[in-house]
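The protein record now logged underneath.
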Amino acid sequence: LEKSVEQAEQANISKTDFLRRMSLDIRTPINGIRGMVDICRYYIGNPKKQEECLDKILLSSTFLMELVNDVLDMNKLESGQIKLEEKPFSISEILKEVETVVGMAATEQGITLTVKKGEINHENLLGSSLHIRQILQNITSNAVKYNKPNGKVILECRELPPKNEKAVFEFVCTDNGIGMSPEFQEHAFEPFVQENSSARTSYTGTGLGLAITRNAILLHRGSIKVSSVEGQGTTFTVKIPLSYIK
């Protein structure tokens, strides 16, 4: 009973800490919305440009709403109480959405974001598009955030040979940013962990992004690996098996 009470108290502390410090994952679509509003005002009298801005605002706000609802319930994600959806979605559409949302933040920081799609045999999939989008946004947002002026971020997607009647997708996110120390890499996926160095602590955030990402990947029975060199950059490799529409 004492252990249960202690775990409940720790969960409440973690959620309170999250609400106080906020996170890059939430600020990214908010900044995108604000930027699109300014652009929309600039193009008053140009219906085509305004419609493009409104579409991006709707996309960012929808994802923000879904993200907040899910992230605030991280305790359920960790405990496995969240059941993954089995709804149709397009992997290409997910990549476009991530490129749009994270791309706006990258442009603001002078970072070049490139999304590359390799050979894909199964375009139409079944699963939780929210979690797949969240996974990809988290790792690309981190790559943008912990980068250098005029830096580059590349997100690559390709399909691997199928396994257990599921399509296996590999996502590789590479940047030439500030990198991580070998010591920090051992704890990078722990909640609220940030590297104790002047380089990384100068950036704000809760340190929840990678923990949420890892938990979401494990729910899909996938894997994530990180390779990084201080001062040179970081590479995340994610593999996720997904059901496909036959």
In short: Residues 197-206 have pLDDT under 50 and may be disordered. The beta strands are 87-90, 112-117, 124-127, 152-163, 166-175, 223-229, 233-244.
